[in-house]
Design brief:
single chain, about 200 residues, alpha/beta, Rossmann fold, five-stranded parallel beta sheet, 10 helices, 5 strands, Cytidylate kinase-like family protein, P-loop_NTPase, transferase
Length: about 200
């Protein structure tokens, strides 16, 4: 009987999504990725297109955003707080879904969302072989081969900045997670097996 969810943080093009889907199939667990954006938009009356555009984008300064909120300065509230409001909407959506049934959540600071309501199994997927990541980025997301390596690095930096702007811990740092798996060495299937074994113990 599964009693906790799995959150998967991942380097861009490391196969985190595919591993999450494999895990979902193995354990018959719901899988949520971009679906979280749509569900949050529906629940809170937000525009899905705008939400997708802002999804996993770092706030300019979370502390400043909170200062604006507590000071009662409403003039720039909508513009300044928008990323934080999106983060909150997604977190509330993640908690609501996890309360219904343990699930696999991809990205979007899901580990932070579930930190207080029920400890998830926190996983981070990385890939040490850049050629693997280049191939996946090109095949799955159709990224042009020109400057693709720098594109991959920029994507990682954006994810790190987004996570770190909300978290008391650090994105990609070993101590932040329960499991850190190298998909280049283990392969997607083996990663999913290891996560499944850890979850059902």
């Amino acid at each position: 009987m599964l009693n906790r969810s799995v959150t998967i943080g991942r380097q861009y093009a490391s196969g985190g999504r595919e591993i999450g889907k494999l895990l979902s199939q193995k354990l018959d667990m719901p899988y949520y990725d971009y679906e979280l954006v749509l569900l949050a938009a529906e629940k809170y009356g937000l525009n899905p297109g705008v939400l997708k555009e802002k999804d996993e984008i770092r706030t300019d300064s979370l502390l400043y955003n909170l200062a604006v909120l507590t000071s009662g300065n409403a003039r720039n509230f909508g513009k300044v707080m928008e990323p934080y409001e999106i983060f909150q909407a997604e977190c509330e959506t993640i908690r609501r879904l996890s309360e219904k049934h343990p699930a696999v959540f991809i990205g979007r600071c899901a580990d932070l969302a579930l930190m207080e309501t029920g400890k998830p199994l926190r996983v981070f997927i990385y890939a040490t072989n850049m050629e693997d990541r280049i191939k996946r980025a090109h095949e799955v997301d159709h990224i042009d081969m020109k400057n693709i390596e720098s594109y991959i690095k920029r994507k990682d930096m954006k994810r790190k900045s987004y996570y770190n702007s909300f978290a008391p811990t650090e994105w990609g740092r070993m101590e932040t997670y329960d499991l850190c798996l190298n998909s280049s060495d283990l392969g997607y299937e083996k990663c999913a097996e290891i996560i499944a074994e850890a979850l059902v113990e």
